[in-house]
Design a protein that fits this description.
about 70 residues
């Protein structure tokens, strides 16, 4: 039997310990969450072993729109 990570359950456990955590569905939701939560001067690190659905450019585009 293969067990799968339940991201929402993990986020709930992390939040219960007093640390902010969010689970999102898909790259679009991830980009919107990061762009919406970031503040000027923040450093955003994206670590991926590939293109990850174009997240780098999508995030840059979302941040550019927000700063206009």
């Amino acid at each position: 039997m293969t067990e799968r990570l339940d991201a929402r359950q993990l986020a709930d456990v992390i939040r219960a310990s007093g640390t902010p955590a969010t689970a999102v569905d898909g790259i679009g939701s991830l980009v919107a969450s990061v762009a919406g939560d970031s503040q000027p001067g923040d450093v955003i690190l994206v670590m991926s072993n590939g293109d990850f659905g174009g997240i780098h450019q999508k995030l840059l585009d979302a941040l550019a729109v927000r700063t206009r």
